[in-house]
Automatic annotation (TrEMBL):
Protein name: CRAL-TRIO domain-containing protein
Gene3D superfamilies documented for this protein: Alpha-tocopherol transfer (1.20.5.1200), CRAL-TRIO lipid binding domain (3.40.525.10), N-terminal domain of phosphatidylinositol transfer protein sec14p (1.10.8.20)
Natural source organism: Arctia plantaginis (Wood tiger moth)
Gene Ontology MF annotations: phosphatidylinositol bisphosphate binding
GO CC annotations, alphabetized: membrane
Residue span, CRAL-TRIO domain: 95-260
UniProt xrefs under SUPFAM superfamilies: CRAL/TRIO domain, CRAL/TRIO N-terminal domain
Amino acid sequence: MPFIEIAFQAEVSRYEDSEFEEHARRICNEDPDTRSKVIEELRRLIRERGECNPRRLDDAYCLRFLRCRRFIPALAHKLMVRYEDFRRQNAYLYDCDAFALQKVKNVYGGTLPESPTNGRIILMRFGRWDVDSVPIEDVVRCALLMDEIAVMQPKLQILGVTIIVDLEGLNLRHVAQLTPTVASQIVALMGVSFPLANHCLHIINYNWLLHSIFYLFKQFMPKAVWNRVHFHGNDTSSLRKHIDPEYLPPEYGGHCQYLIATEDWIAKIDEYKDDFLVQELRSLGFTVKS
């Protein structure tokens, strides 16, 4: 089987690979000897504080939040509350055919192989968004679907993600779609209200049009998150100081040839989806056709 097919099968795997145990210890402060005790402490906080009513409380589900907050139950609980609030307030975003979101072409440039330092690297190209054929809600939904599928995979719970936002081609028609509601949703999906660690956000190829929207997004970002946003202008050499060229495509001075377009990624997830993935997406509110 070609390597790429094996990689796509792994995208729907919930296998806890023992080789990631050391990564989990280093990145997430996860100790196998105390894992069960910490999970139970998170459950106790959920029951006693009553600030959220999660649809699941099994070990695997709790681990998503603990790994994202370095196994500190109080912080994991706060994240879970924010995540449940996001789901309740934005239920309409889940009300769609999950695998029909392949139509959101070009906006999400694709995914690159995981780096031990940067996690999964995701490329976004909002300047290629066709505002006439793809509504902003579907752009956000596509990011939501990718996040929800990613957090089912233990490897990504541990490694997290790094996002590159290439704004080449962005114009006033694109900017006009970015309301405060949309900005808050995008920030939430970048890890503020979602159990997926976002190491850094790198913004490249932008112009004067964008100064106002940067401040629109900034108002929804905690200071610690804003401090992980890096602006590179048109300087890809600056980007390479943060991400090893081994994990960047040639257009940014890198050597990586494996950039998987998001529409291809969604199509392959659809092909390899199993019963667990289908039921999980449906329980979230997505429509998944058999």
